[in-house]
Amino acid sequence: MTIPSLPFTFGDFFRYPKHSQPAVHDYLRIPTLECITELHAIIRTGTFQQIERALERAGVSPRASSLAVLFMAIEPTTGNSLMHTAVIAQRIDVMDYLRAFRSHRPAAYRPPHYALWSHQNHDGNTMLHSAVQSGQKELVVAVFQIFRDGNIDELDELLRSEEADDWGFDNDNEEEFHLRLGELVLLLRENAKGRSAADEAQALGHTDIATWLERTTQLDDPLRERNDPSIVQIWREICDDHYAFLDEGAQDVAPPLTTWGSGMAYS
After folding, report:
1. Nearest to 98 by CA among 113, 119, 115, 112
2. How many whole angstroms separate alpha carbon 242 and alpha carbon 163?
3. What crossing angle do the helices spanning 106-117 and 174-188 adopt, rounded to 10°?
4. CA angle, 3 as apex, 242 and 112 as ends, to 5°?
5. Tens-digit pLDDT profile for the chain (267 aa)?
6. Which of 14, 28, 57, 237 is 20 to 30 A away from residue 188, measured at CA?
7. Residues 183, 155, 69, 66, CA torsion sign
8. Hey, what domains does the chain have and what are their CATH numbers?
9. Neighbours of 26 (CB within 10 A)
10. Would you say 38 and 31 are in contact if contact means Cβ atoms under 8 Å apart?
11. In angstroms, rounded to a whole number, what is the distance separating the alpha carbons of residues 90 and 140?
């Protein structure tokens, strides 16, 4: 079983249990190309109110919620998600705003959300790679708010503190175990150039970012099991099984045509 790739189609939403589905509708289509273009433009420069209205407009026509739109509004020319665009525009405020689109039971929403957080654009870059390419360490740290609670300053201070060696995920807790592996797999994911986020930072000369990423990776993997390709492959398979889980009661439903409204198939 593999994590569905973005943009989501009708069937992708319904593979998750009802309590964790971003949207449940009888019929879903991805937003039009015009809506997607408008959304990405507003993410770059708009206010929260403008972003909220644009998400609502994009969701009205295909009868999708604002949350579901995040999984469908992938920029065709770049493959960027709305989170990628926020990162590239260096808008941490918008990243936090989009991150807030989740259930009052966030743990239930983590499986579908992982498809969004780990999405790779046409260059194979995750939003973590995009943050690294900016050269702004605070952007890189902001990405990790997805996996951890607390604000950016608290997280960065903790990573530099003497207690950092004792900080991490509790592997006896199943939820935290999967979050740790999800974070590790994201940290190690390579772009089209074969570079992890830390590799990208080194290649671009952002040594402070590379050091921070290596430090974070070491906290998640103190035994350095990441140096064994077979172990990393096992991690990927565990993540795929956990974050792509299909509702046992779900039925296979043939997704309808997904179009931009311009006659062009988008899949």
Report:
1. 113
2. 30
3. 10
4. 70
5. 678 789 987 777 777 766 555 554 555 566 889 999 999 999 999 999 999 888 888 877 666 677 788 888 999 999 999 999 999 999 988 988 887 665 444 554 567 788 888 999 999 999 999 999 999 998 998 887 776 655 545 555 555 544 444 445 556 677 778 888 888 999 999 999 999 999 999 999 999 999 999 998 998 898 899 999 999 999 999 988 888 766 544 444 433 333 323 322 222
6. 14
7. positive
8. 10-157+169-243 (1.25.40.20)
9. 6
10. no
11. 10
Residue for token pair 């993997």: 221
Distance CA 53, CA 173 (A): 39
Provide the token pair at 226. Answer: 């990441």
CA 195 remoteness from chain centre = 18
